[in-house]
Structure formats: C-alpha cells, structure tokens
Amino acid sequence: MRRAVVLLSGGLDSCVAASEAQHRGFRLHALSIDYGQRHARELQAARDVARALGAEHRTVRVDLAALGGSALTDQAIAVPQDRDAHVMAADIPPTYVPARNTVFLSIAAGWAEVLDADAVFIGANAVDYSGYPDCRPEYLRAFEEAARLGTRRGIEGRAIRIEAPLVHLSKAGIVHLGLERKAPLHLTWSCYLGGRKQCGRCDSCRLRRKGFREAGLEDPVGYEA
Amino acid sequence: MRRAVVLLSGGLDSCVAASEAQHRGFRLHALSIDYGQRHARELQAARDVARALGAEHRTVRVDLAALGGSALTDQAIAVPQDRDAHVMAADIPPTYVPARNTVFLSIAAGWAEVLDADAVFIGANAVDYSGYPDCRPEYLRAFEEAARLGTRRGIEGRAIRIEAPLVHLSKAGIVHLGLERKAPLHLTWSCYLGGRKQCGRCDSCRLRRKGFREAGLEDPVGYEA
Q1: Cβ under 8 Å to B: A residues 68-107
Q2: Do B139 and A133 touch (CB under 8 A)?
Q3: Which of A202, B57, B77, B97 could link A192 by a cystine bridge, Cβ 3.0 to 4.6 Å?
C-alpha cells in the first residue's frame, strides 16, 4: 500500500485533504507541527482527527516563536478580526508566519524519505484564503522541485510528490468534498485564538463560516459570536 | 547595512561562509539548529564562532530525531569511519539527515523575512563532500526559487538570495579562503561524534583533514586518532 505523509493542523482544510488522500488509496502518516502557535487547541484537534482516520500521528516541535514576526506566534501582535474575504486576499496579514509552509513541507518531506512515502499532502488553498504567499500553486510546484533535487528519493528518480488537492477549491467546495469523503469535520478547529469556542471573527473563522454558509450546511463546530 | 542570516553549524565550512558574508559587507545574524544531533559539542562551537565574529546568534530547536532515519539523530545507526573521499561522494551515507538543508534553509528564510535580510548564507559544498543531495548547486537554486515564491519579500520583488560561496571549492580551497578571511577556524568542530577531541575517522573529520593537508597547513583543532 502506498504511503503518504499528511500535514494535519487540526483545521478544516487539512482534515479534508487527509480524507481525500485516504480516498485515493494512501496509507496515512499524519504530521502536526508544534511551532509555538498561540494555543494548543488545534494540536489536540489534529490528534483527534488522526485517530478518527486511523492514521499514525506525530507532532514535531519547531520553535518558530523564537524568530517572532507573526501574530500567531507573538502575543504582542493582534490577530485581525471582522475582515471580509476580498480584504484578506488583497494583502499579507499579520497572521502570516514567515516561511511556515516551507518549514512544514520540509519536515514532511524528511519524514516521507524515512517512511519511503510517495507523497506529501497539504491542505493549502489559494481561493478563499488569507493571502499567504506559501499557499499558491506556483509556490507548491517550486517546493516540489526543490524537494526532488534535495532528497534521496529524488536522486533515485522516485521524487516525493507534493499534493494539494484543495488548492483550486472554494471554501464551500472544500466543505462539500469533506462531506463526500466523510471527513470528521466535527473534530476540527479553525480559530486562530484559543478560546473555549471558536471566536467566529478571525480570518480563519470567517472563511470557514463562509464556506459552510455557501455550501448551505450547518457547521458542526460552534462559535462564540 | 545589509543583513544576512548565516546558517552556522559549528563546523569548518559554515565558519568560512560566515566570514565570507561579513567580508562582503553583510551584518551577520547567525542561526544554529538544534535538530537532535548526537552531541551538543558543535552547537557550542557555533556559539563560540558567532561570538568571535560579533554576530547575533540564535539556536532554534527542531526535533528531527523524532522522525529517525539518520545516523546523526539515531544512536542505533552507526557513523561510518575510515572511508575515502571518492567512496563518500559515490553514495548517500547513513549520516544523511533527510531534507535537513531544506528544513534549515526554510527556518533561515523565515528569520530573514522577520529581519528584512537580503540573503541567507550556507556553507554547502559539492566538491569534497559526503554525497548529500541537498548540498548540490541545482538543489540550492531550486530552493531559492521556492523561497522567492513562498515569502513576502519574494512577492514584493525583493527575493531573499540563497548564497553558497563554498559550493564549488575544494576543501583545501575552503581552508585557504578561511585563512584569507581570518575566520576563527580554531573554534570550529567538524566531527560527527561527540568525544573530547574530534575522532579523525568519520567522513566529516576525514574531509577536514584532507583539506588542511592539501592546503599544506596544520589544523588548529586536534584529533583522537
């Protein structure tokens, strides 16, 4: 059985990406990165999603908070709230964590080498997204090429593929695909803040709500506001 | 003054790369990665080299040992000794840490974004080297392109350059350049093992010795054997 490493943040998108990888016949090895984010709630969600999917799960620590520069790792920088989707996509927001997906993908590629896995799945999306440069398809293709040249499997002509099955989907499309794949959406956590419920107002909550609303479905996870 | 992030392992090559970056007029921000390597001796050497160069220095932890697959992070895998240089270059050895330079460069690129630094310097070398795929110039160019597409500076048309000033030098050439740049070579540590002295027999020690020997110079750092 072919193996895939799946980056699992605990959010909606990576849960659907993981379910899609499973649907395509891969045996899943779920990887979460504890990078010093504001709260551990999403890492708990990642563990729950991995368990529901029957996937091996590992959490690797990388202390990106030591470098600062993002609202997600520095409590002194505010997380924006109440922004509309077209505003989000127009600019790189303070929640951007410099080079985060490159760090995540490189660790995932390293684990894929060790496991002899064929692919790394990531829930990156460039339609209803926060304007992060490292979610765009042209970036993902460039990273795939760097990983091909910089790994043993690449040298051997069996390069690790970087699969981003959601990259061209709208958030509503992601919700629909999640339902089709019976993804455990009720276990996910998308909020940038670490409250008892999702805040409903940060970029991540607003994109998620927009997705469920446009899909005409109720979100199984509740919100504060 | 232009800034550069310099990956500083504590070894010979990164010390010379850092000195070269300083010579080119960059203000240095030295970055070491504690990735779960066999010993902390080289991280101490990195701190000493950074201090000697007057550079800011940070150590970021990434738990690559949690993924296994390398003699440098797994005590159960033996570090090869007494291999000749042409043998080393012919194959990828057990000391290869999957995707290590991609992990290192991505963290360095992230810090470069935060600092608004123009370049990341790495001491990668593809002449007298251990056959690691992620030391080759074609890999480094591909990573630079991924970083361009995946970072804010890249989007703004001010992409972070990946500089590998030693990539085409022989080990003797690296020693010569280090002397020319007055690099603090006496503070470096190249050995893969963590003894009181460098073992003199692992790939890294043998390449270092070969460099000093071919340069006709005495290595200021001693060996066990």
Answers
A1: 68-69, 92, 96-103, 105-107
A2: no
A3: A202
Task: Return left, alpha or beta for B100; rule: phi > 0 is left, psi -120 to 50 is alpha, else beta.
Answer: alpha
* Domains along chain B with CATH numbers: 3-215 (3.40.50.620)
Q: What is the pLDDT of residue A90?
A: 81
pTM of the model as a whole: 0.95
User: Quick check: A139 contacting B, CB < 8 Å?
Assistant: yes
Distance CA A110, CA B102 (A): 9
Q: Which of B66, B105, B139 sits opposite A60 (nearest CB)?
A: B66
Taking CA atoms, what residue in A is nearest to B93? A152
For residues A75 and A197, the answer to whether their CB atoms sit within 8 Å is: no
**Within an 8 Å CB–CB cutoff, is residue B57 touching chain A?**
no
Residues of A in contact with B57 (CB under 8 A): none
- B41-63 pLDDT, tens digit per residue, is 999 999 999 999 999 999 999 99
Listing DSSP states for chain A in one string gives --EEEEE--SSHHHHHHHHHHHHTTPEEEEEEEE---S-SHHHHHHHHHHHHHT-EEEEEEB-GGGT--STTT-TTSPPPBS--HHHHHTS--TT--TTHHHHHHHHHHHHHHHHT-SEEE----SSSS---GGGSHHHHHHHHHHHHHTSHHHHTT-PPEEE-TTTT--HHHHHHHHHHTT--GGG----SS-SSSB-S-BHHHHHHHHHHHHHT---SS-B--
Q: Which residues of B touch A143 (CB under 8 A)?
A: 146, 150
Q: What is the mean pLDDT of residues A29-34?
A: 97
CA atoms of A200 and A81, how far apart (whole Å): 9
pLDDT class of B11 with cuts at 50, 70, 90: very high
